[in-house]
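Hi R.,

Here's the chain you asked about this morning:
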Amino acid sequence: MTWTELDWGALDRLRDRFLSGGLGDGPYWTSASDLASYDVTYGERIGWKWDAVLDELRLRNWAPRGGPVLDWGCGSGIAGRRVAARFGAALAGPLVFWDHSPSATMFAHDAASRELPGLEVSMATAAYLRCDDPIGLLVLSHVLNELAPAALDEIRLLASRSRAVIWVEPGTRDTGRRLAALRDELSGAFGVVAPCTHAKPCTALQAGNERHWCHHFAPPPPAIFADSNWVKFGQRAGIDLRSLPYSFAALERGWAGGPEGFSRVIGRPEHFKPYARLLSCSGAGLEVLTVPKRTNPELYKELDRTRRPLVYRWSRDGDTVTAASKLERGT
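And the predicted structure, written out as tokens:
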């Protein structure tokens, strides 16, 4: 699929479906053209979110420990392909796709087979979804808005078979808070790898924090802003290409936790002329902190421009950050 071959009618229909946010009336993929058009546009944007999540997991010194990778509700399979491309041989197991639409499952399987030659790729059967065979990594991407209660129960059962789970959703308040509740539910059996820097219940769900939710912003590739195809797509779809909000939870059984004393910035820091203001999450809870430009100009600038995950260990004077060290791989 090239940009000149895009099925704009299908993309418009899919956009309306996504914006409605409802369960819908069954599979919305009607053809391979739907899936191919989606994969190079909306799907690629989801891929950039997965790139940001996988960058953060690498920063946390996390990698899969073998076994099958199941991309459940795969759509075009962009999430599973990004995971497999990033970890390669470390997967030590097949990449398995499943979607309620057989057309989507087939598309995801074929796309992964083309892009990742040498990787074992398969499609899940109904028997596989119901069996007790262990799963190395369960991958879930942008499914929460579409889940009926029975489907959510199926995910719980799949998680009970899984060594690790990575779940990525749009960065809206509703999905972010729902995902946080599921993170808390699953954390009894799993250790929380990211985005949290602590193993306590989600602080955004505590009383008094109702207006907050855990979300972040992925950096899109700079080249798209000079690409007329992406510019046209953004205008047609009504999308701000600069903004890629997402929420995610990464969990693993037996995870020992990362280095202590770090905090994760929630959302996007606000910059004013004399200072930056940010929402910091740690085991101590949610805190609004300020970074004075005059006394800490480098951090003030970094918070606005960095493409790294915003994970820091703060030195503070009350609510004012006096110094910060960013999380480095191997810390």
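The radius of gyration is 20 Å.

Let me know if you need anything else.
M.
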